[in-house]
Amino acid sequence: MAWVYLALAGVLEIGWAIGLKYVDGFTRLWPSVGTVAAMVASMILLAMAARTLPIGTAYAVWTGIGAAGVAILGILWLGEARDLVRVLCIGLIIAGTVGLKLSSSE
After folding, report:
1. How far lies 18's CA from each of 21, 24, 40, 55, 96, in Å?
2. CA distance 12 to 63
């Protein structure tokens, strides 16, 4: 279950990071409520995963999911640059995240 919690925490991290684009300095109520709710839920799920997973692995995978996910959505949804170096670097983040999962004994 720890890996499921961690995956959900990573998806929620993507949600709250993208949400920061829409909160306007936390002056917009509903985007702010959704962003903060995703932050809290993401942290709770990360903490639940860290009960059994090594914290270094859990945190690295959590941030990897978030970083790669936000970068991909930035390209696909927000019109951010999609040059080759950027895409390759996102691929490296994904490879590292998958590598941590595959090398974990949990």
Report:
1. 6, 12, 15, 24, 22
2. 11
Domain ranges, ordered by start, for the chain? 2-103
One digit per residue, the tens of pLDDT, for the chain of length 106 reads: 999 999 999 999 999 999 999 999 999 999 999 999 999 999 999 999 999 999 999 999 999 999 999 999 999 999 999 999 999 999 999 999 999 999 987 7
Six token digits for residue 60: 């690295």
Q: What is the largest CA-CA distance in the chain?
A: 44
Q: Is the dihedral of CA 70, 9, 5, 51 positive or negative?
A: positive
Contact 49, 9 (CB under 8 A): yes
